[in-house]
Amino acid sequence: MWWNFIGRDSAEIVQAVEDWEKGDRFGTVHGYAGERLRAPQLPPGELKPRGRVR
């Protein structure tokens, strides 16, 4: 998980960020008058999975 994105691995998160920045896949937020929020910069390296919490 990173910001508002959930993926099974780091590559899926990177793809989600790219899609968000291009305006693909996530649709439009109706009623929000401001500019589209930019995703925060990903940290260097690959994101690590959280693992299962019991």
Q: Which terms summarize this structure?
A:
single chain; mainly alpha
Describe the structure.
The protein is an all-alpha fold. It has a domain at 1-28. It is 24% helix and 0% strand. It contains 1 helix and no strands. The longest helix has 13 residues, at 10-22. The protein starts with 9 loop residues before the first helix and ends in a 32-residue tail after the last helix. The mean pLDDT is 86.
Low-confidence stretches: none
Strand content: under 5%
Main beta sheet strand tally, sense and closure: none
Give the SSE string: H
- Relative helix content: 10-25%
The chain-level mean pLDDT equals 86
Report the strand count.
0
Radius of gyration from CA coordinates: 13 Å
The computed structural class is: mainly alpha
Oligomer: single chain
Straight-line N-to-C gap: 18 Å
Number of helices: 1
Shape field: elongated
